[in-house]
Every structure is written in C-alpha cells, then in structure tokens.
Amino acid sequence: MGSMNAVVVTVLCAFAMHAGFLVTNAQLSPTFYNETCPTLSDIVFNVISNASLTDPRIGASLIRLHFHDCFVQGCDGSVLLNNTDSIESEQDAAPNINSLRGLDVVNNIKTAVEDSCPETVSCADILAIAAEVASVLGGGPSWDVPLGRRDSLNASQALANQNLPAPFFTVDQLISSFAAQGLNTTDLVTLSGAHTFGRARCSLFLSRLYSFNDTGNPDPTLNTTYLETLRGICPENATVDNITNLDLSTADQFDNKYYSNLQELNGLLQSDQELFSTTGADTVDLVNSFSSDQSVFFANFVVSMIKMGNISVLTGTDGEIRTQCNFVNGNSSATLAGVASKDPKLNLVAQSK
C-alpha cells in the first residue's frame, strides 16, 4: 500500500507541475484503433525491438522524430514527407538535414501495419506510438498513447528552421520556443530529459570546447575533466564530424542521469547545461527535483509527451491516412536533392541523437 501511495503522489505531483493542462485531447483516444487495427501496438513494438538489436540509438532517434514533427505545424507526420515537385521537405531544413534517423524504421512499421490494417493508421500516430515504445525499450516510462491523428498534405521547411530550438539557445530562448507550441517551463525541462540517451555531433558543441561565444576560452559552465574528454573526441580542426553520447554515464538507458549530469556541469549541449547553470532560472529547481527522484521525472515525462502529442493535430476528415509515410497519397515521385540552409549558424540546430 505504501508503494502505491508513493506512485499516486508522484502522478499528482506531475499534474501539479502541469497545472491547467488536460492530458487528453477530446478528439484523440488510446482505444481509437481497438476495432480497426487491434494488433497495432504489437506491430510497432516488434519492428522497433528488432531494429534496436543492431542500432542502440534508434529509440532516441524515434523520440526526436516525434518531437521534430510536432514542433512544425503540429503532430501531423509532415517531417516524414520527401521532396516532390510541390513539397519542400522538412528533412532538408537546418535542424534535420543529414541528422534525422529512424525514417527507415518508420517505413518498415508502416509496411507491416498496411499489411495488417490497410489504409487505417496514420503515420503521425505511428510516430507517437514509436516514441512511447522507444521510452519503454530504453527502460523509461510507458503510457496509453492518445490516437486518431491524421496525416498532413504538406510540409514546411521554413517552419522547421524557425520553430525547432537550437543547441546554443539560452533558457529564455528555450522557454520562448516551447511557449510558442503551448508548452511551459516544466515541459521544457521534462522533454529535455530525452537527452538521457542518444548521440550528438561535435559541431553542435565545438565552440563550448575552444572558443565559447568567441571568447577564445571554453564554456565556464563545462566541467574541466569532461572538457578534456570531449576535446579528445572532438579536435578543434577535425575534418570529420564525430559523435559522442549525450549522457556520459548511461548512454543507451532512459533514466534521470541527464539531470545529475547537469548538476555536475556535465551537460553536453549548451542548451542542456543552461537549464541548471542559469542563475535564478525556474528550470534549476526542476532539474534538482528530477535528479533526486526518477519517478517524478518519469511521471512528468508521460504528461509532457502526451501534451506535446496533442499539438495542432489533424482529426476527423482533415488531412488523410497516407499509405506511404514519405508521400501524400497519389504522389510518390520524389526529388532526391535536399536544400540546406545558407545560414551557417542555422546548420547547428539540434542535430543530435
């Protein structure tokens, strides 16, 4: 009974931190496919589980895909659309180019789902389920995913460049970026905890190691021992963009070590460390809370993921159910060449995991 009371308190704490938020969208329901595709959850789980056997990064990549989808015109599967004569793919936006992973796994899920339940399940819903499965396979929390989203008929590379937060953002910039999506400071700190697993490219944090803010010195909020480790992985003038773990302690496990890393000044990205090292920021107490109690972090993560998954969803007769996730129905002629941003600073946007 005591442990059950602790769980109840933790969940109530999560709801208190998200005061004013209703977890479910009235048009979405975890039972949406119970009759039309009863094996959906098993299909998604099996495909991702098999992929994880050879790719330990896949869980983090799939959560990132869902995040990058929802922050650009809502959770509508637009991030999955390839270039065509009429669509400029979000995959070629600065935050995504050459860094989005898991698209092949999503396509494999879609193929399996179409074999079992033709023209029934949206790609946007597949992304939402995949994010939950990724959390579970990494040792993180599970939740009943609200379903019933439909897929967009278009994409927006411009909004992808505009809306996705960058790894050099300050706390104020991060808060503003999340607020634009209807997410609060608790959501910001909670969802940032997905950096508890996955990888990041050296180019995203190289300035912290050698000339932070063009000072010629490293970032003073970076642990000096960790600094030397990272310099060994990321030489200043290297021609190859190496990758390293976002979480130096448990790289492939979904846990709360991300927050204790921040307390020890071992946050990899500037935008991560800012959550703890910004004097007077509301984010500091949240980092301390999640570091001290993993169950509180997990409970809040569930709330924030469901909340994010509700952003500007298409339902009813809006959009469509794509039969291929990469193309709108009736248009499968893609152009292969992507168009990268000409702004070199934009090319540093959150290309992690």
Automatic annotation (TrEMBL):
Keyword field: Calcium, Disulfide bond, Glycoprotein, Heme, Hydrogen peroxide, Iron, Metal-binding, Oxidoreductase, Peroxidase, Secreted, Signal
Site (Transition state stabilizer): R64
Binding-site residues for Ca(2+) 2, renumbered to this chain: T196, D247, T250, D255
Coiled-coil portions: none
Taxonomic superkingdom: Eukaryota
Record keyword Nucleus present: no
Cofactor mode of binding and number, as noted: Binds 2 calcium ions per subunit. Binds 1 heme b (iron(II)-protoporphyrin IX) group per subunit.
BP term (GO), one: response to oxidative stress
Primary localization class, coarse: secreted
Disulfide bonds, paired cysteine numbers: C37-C117, C70-C75, C123-C325, C202-C234
Record's GO cellular component terms: extracellular region
Segment forming the signal sequence: 1-26
Binding site for Ca(2+) 1: D69, V72, G74, D76, S78, E90
Compartments, record wording: Secreted
Molecular function (Gene Ontology), one example: lactoperoxidase activity
EC number: 1.11.1.7
Top EC category: oxidoreductase
Main function: Removal of H(2)O(2), oxidation of toxic reductants, biosynthesis and degradation of lignin, suberization, auxin catabolism, response to environmental stresses such as wounding, pathogen attack and oxidative stress. These functions might be dependent on each isozyme/isoform in each plant tissue.
Listed name of the protein: Peroxidase
